[in-house]
Amino acid sequence: MRLAYLVGQYPALPHSYILHEVRVLRSLGFTVEVASISGPDRPAEQLTGIEREEMAGTFYVKSVGAGRALWAQAAVLLTRPVRYLRTLAFSFSLGQGRFRKTLYSLFYFAEAVVFGRWMQSRNLAHVHIHYASTVGLIAARLYPFTAAVTLHGSTEFLDPEGFHLRRKVAASAFVRVISQYGRGELMRSLPYTEWGKIELCRLGIDPVVFSPRPFRAHPSPFEIVSIGRLSAEKGQHVLIAALERLVRQGQDVRLRFLGDGPDRAELERDAAARGLEGQVVFEGAFAHARLPELCAQADVCALTSFREGIPVSLMEAMAMEIPCVAPRITGIPELIEDGADGLLFAPADEEELAAALLRLIGNPDLRRRLGEAARQRVLREYDLAANTARFAEILRRRLFPGHSLARQQHA
Q1: 174-225, pLDDT tens digit by residue?
Q2: In terms of residue numbers, what domain contains 65?
């Protein structure tokens, strides 16, 4: 069962679950070779040992250089001219008549040629795609291999036509979604005849790595962590505004942002303008392996995103028995049941968010109960090994049916 993984960037902190998925699949008998469009999101010296090991074995599409890329184009044009020209015309059509989109589509075409040549050189016939679906779509038209894709949501569902969702599904053997929300959005965007391609298989985390941190009944200060990229869609200004409400009410609280991104400077200015320099800490980028250490003192994990799929960062916090407060959007209610294993609030509602945080600050028994229930939810439904084993069976059934049949006969 030899399989390529095509990833937008590998390894990358926001998508560390892809690395873990690859390694679990290998432990289940798959030979997985990884191609990444871009190099790692950090210098090699900042990668963990496992990440450096993965980097050493990964093919980086953008690293081949102009000479090799041009040679790949010429080789494909000479050996399969009709398919090359038809796929090039198809790539032009993806631009929908807009200059910028057409230019990007031609870049994707060039990357697809290089990636497909690598697939042929490795004698690989199947590819699974994360965050590189346009390159995969083009490559699957140019080369005779089978493609499948994971759609994480919610970005892919904002503009189905602009994302070429129907074309990507049509070119795929199957499409994996990670939530019922994603399944519904995909069904809404596809003709009924394509619904049979949809496979629901959730992501997961390792509950051994993310084990319960020590519970603090009466912390001083009360520590709120927010994990993730500092960017507009994450809505972190709402969290800063909620924190100001708590401080004005005399609460001894501290907010720590774990992560970095383009909105950091603006968020720092916002905190300073509200007089919260002493209560807001920006930790910056960090090695994913340090997350349990960075969350060891956390009393609550807060998320304020305007759109999400099902955030892995919430799963990790929940596995550590950190009660989570998150917006009632997209797939999050599938992960957190309000009042049972976390608290939910209306998106962008700083007042309701502040009230939820205040409720947890004043009630250590509630924090403990929600945290313990949260870990049990992750153990039941978001265990990495169990969910990757389910995904492995989907791969066997969809891409390697002979292996799936052999397992059934053996059982």
Answers
A1: 999 999 999 999 999 999 999 999 999 999 999 999 999 999 999 999 999 9
A2: 2-204+384-410
pLDDT band at 408 (very low <50, low <70, confident <90, very high): low
Phi, psi for residue 215 in degrees, rounded to 5: -80, 135
Report pLDDT digits (tens) over 119-159: 999 999 999 999 999 999 999 999 999 999 999 988 889 89
Q: For the chain, what is the domain count?
A: 2
Helix intervals (H) in 80-130 = 81-94, 99-121
Confidence of residue 309 (pLDDT cuts 50, 70, 90): confident
Token pair, residue 346, equals 């209306």
Strands 280-284, 300-302: pairing kind: unpaired
Task: State phi, psi for 182 to the nearest 5 degrees.
Answer: -65, -40
User: What long-range pairs does 23-31 form, CB within 8 A, spacing at least 24?
Assistant: 23/50, 24/384, 24/385, 24/388, 24/389, 25/388, 25/391, 25/392, 25/395, 28/388, 28/389, 28/392, 29/1, 29/392, 30/1, 30/2, 30/3, 30/392, 30/395, 31/1, 31/2, 31/3
CA neighbor of 112 nearest in space, from 79, 95, 90, 97: 90
Mean pLDDT for the stretch of residues 17-31:
95
| Region 13-21 average pLDDT | 90
Q: Using CA atoms, how far apart are residues 261 and 244, in angstroms rounded to an integer?
A: 22
Calpha distance 303→215 (Å, rounded): 20
- pLDDT, residue 289, reads 85
Cα separations in angstroms, 9 against 16, 19, 169, 280: 10, 11, 22, 30
Instruction: Give the domain CATH number at 169.
Output: 3.40.50.2000
In a domain, 211, yes or no: no
Structure tokens that stand for 165 in this block? 């969702």
**Residue 117 and residue 135 share a domain:** yes
Distance of CA 388 to the CA centre of its chain: 15
Q: Is the pLDDT of residue 409 over 60?
A: no
Distance set, CA 265 to CA 261, 276, 307 (Å): 9, 14, 22
Whole-angstrom distance, CA of residue 142 vs CA of residue 323: 48
